[in-house]
Amino acid sequence: MTTAKPIRVTVWNEFVHERTNPVVAAIYPDGIHQVLRTAIESHLADEAIVRCATLDEPEHGLTDSVLDSTEVLLWWGHAAHDQVEDAIVSKVHRRVLQGMGLIVLHSGHASKIFQRLMGTGCMLRWREAAEKERLWITAPGHPILAGISGDYIELPNAEMYGEHFDIPQPEELLLISWFEGGEVFRSGCTFRRGQGKIFYFRPGHETYPIYHHPQIQQIITNAVVWAQGSGGNYNWDARHIEQPLSPIQQK
Asked: The domain containing residue 98 runs over which residues?
């Protein structure tokens, strides 16, 4: 895949589990964010410039300069949603409306930014029992699924997410998960807010090596390319127009 210029990507991770849970640390010793960064760089080479940001950095690593120069933001959070400052959420929200792409991963469904953009609670059913998961492809040919062969992706162990998933109707439904225990879940959903593209992608529980899976990495990389901004204008403030396009009489 080729792009006209390098896509500026920021991978945000709260980076809590990796430093507090030995099981997670063994799978992601340098953090989930570094595995995602390496995967994107490996797939896109010089077609992407990728940096990372974490919760404990000043402004959670999402300063104005970082956000203004980010075209696609990946978001992974789980244990510390409530620690993300509302002011930072507001800045991310505004940037999405202005055209920054957002990829929300796994338990990021409960993040403040995803809930604000969806306008719903974004809650679901869950169970952690190392179940088999099959991610069935429902939109073959979609650019986010480019290079994915077969009818489904199988993960040997996963945390179950089940319906009902409290989100608005997705604009596109790309993947539906089936779990060994019988539940199903909308696992690959796209949305648009303002000028921004959003992709929610379910796989990725921290105690399983899911982000090392080549097809999962491929989908995330494809989503980065898909989510980059179109360059359209977004008018945040109301505009008072004194002069009409055609003559009118004041009434």
From this structure: 7-120+188-227
Question: What is this structure's pTM?
Answer: 0.95
Residue 134 is encoded by which pair of tokens? 């099959």
Is 103:188 a contact under the CB 8 Å cutoff?
no
pLDDT tens, position by position, 192-234: 999 999 999 999 999 999 999 999 999 999 999 999 987 677 8
In a domain, 148, yes or no: no
Examine residue 240 and state whether it is found in any structural domain, yes or no.
no
> By C-alpha distance, which of 68, 101, 111 is closest to 222?
101
- Residue spans of alpha helices (H) in the chain: 17-20, 22-27, 32-44, 64-68, 86-98, 112-118, 214-227
Q: Are strands 101-105 and 7-13 parallel, antiparallel or unpaired?
A: unpaired
179 domain residue, yes or no = no
Q: Is residue 206 in a domain?
A: yes
CATH code, domain with 197: 3.40.50.880
Q: How far apart (Å, rounded) are the C-alpha atoms in residues 70 and 54?
A: 15
